[in-house]
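Field notebook, page 420. I keep forgetting to write these up properly, so this time I am using the form the group agreed on. The chain and the ligand, fe (ii) ion, are recorded exactly as supplied. Prediction of the bound pose follows.
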Amino acid sequence: MSTYHINLHEAIYSLSDALDLVGVTHIHHGKRVAYMAAECGKRMGWQGQGLDDLFQAAILHDCGVSKTVVHSRLLQFEWELESGHCQIGADLLDSCALTSNISPFVRYHHTHWEELKDMDLPMQVKLSANCIFMVDRVDVLSLASLVDQSNLLLGREHICEKILEKRGIWFCPELVDAFIELSRSEAFWLTLENEHLDGYVSVWLAETPVKAMSFEELRSIVGIFSYIVDAKSSFTKDHSDGVARLARYLGELMGLAETSCEMLELAGLLHDIGKLRQPDELLDKPGKLTDEEYLRIKRHSFDTYSILRNIKGLEQITQWAALHHERVDGSGYPYHLGQGGLPLEARIVAVADMFQALAQNRPYRAAMQPDAIMQELRMQAAEGKIDGGVLDYISDNLDACWQQAVHAGVAEKSLRPASP
Ligand SMILES: [Fe+2]
Ligand SMILES: [Fe+2]
Ligand SMILES: [Fe+2]
């Protein structure tokens, strides 16, 4: 098994970037919450690993939210039915050895202090979770007063009043006091502007060394990305997992090196991460898409590229993932690369993606059976869209390929709660 050299902060940052897209109109929520949580933590005298864990948990705190509709509900200050996404997010982070330590921060990030303070948890967990809760609500309030950036300074008194009203009830009194002290500084609010926020987060990114990871470790963090995107629509449940398994299986059938097979699995898991930017109703639309909607959907493979491009060590996987809608005759998108520009692995992911999608129900058609899928794919190969050589391996192993594509992920996913 290979070793991968990845900067964990870069991977977490990219995941948060992808999650930010779920907001559609309210982007950078995770980054703003992480910045404010870290500043409050410093004010509380926290430092070192504890502060870093707080930042990681805060930037990922909404990883249980894939649907734009759930995200918009969370923008109401007093929305009380939000615990579903806390549990989903915590379970997801718990499923990965590299993030399991921050799982409880996310689990309790909407629990009121009145209740949380007596729970049987380490004090640092309670305080970190409550810190995320408080600044999450600050961000929601700031969004309401943010018509332009100067309004944020005008609105800060109102924000502080609302937070003070919940002192000792929703929020730990010491955390509220730390926040109120911070809020006196204009610089605290001005750093919430996008360009300053980016600068703040870049410093955090630069602070982590590259970490040597096993395939299993990298797969578990990549699995968080794929779970979130698959949970976005009931139609695409397990799609990325199915594509990943089929792509890897095809690589094995074709005799590719073990590292390439592992990387094919990772590319399959990540290929549709750009779909997080799509509004739910577009992915679930039962009828034909309008031209405008189709153009919007088509940008997802480019968004996959832009989300993953900053993770050093993942360049090749990013390329294979982002090229999954390219076609051998150059008619695909977004780069219009033809056969010459498409690595074999990208052609494998493209075929696996098509096969798995045809094997699933879609809002506009029912799932197709293996023979019908083969017929459709042969037509695509005859038209020069997909690689006929790759397809030959499917046709020689049709049942096994079907199993890989359709039964993927059953055991693993059953451990996790249903999506909201
Ligand atoms: Fe949030
Ligand atoms: Fe796609
Ligand atoms: Fe896909």
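OBSERVATIONS:
- The chain has two domains: 3-206, 234-413.
- The pocket of fe (ii) ion (ligand 2) is lined by residues 272, 300-301, 324-325 (CB under 6 Å).
FOLLOW-UP: compare against the apo run.
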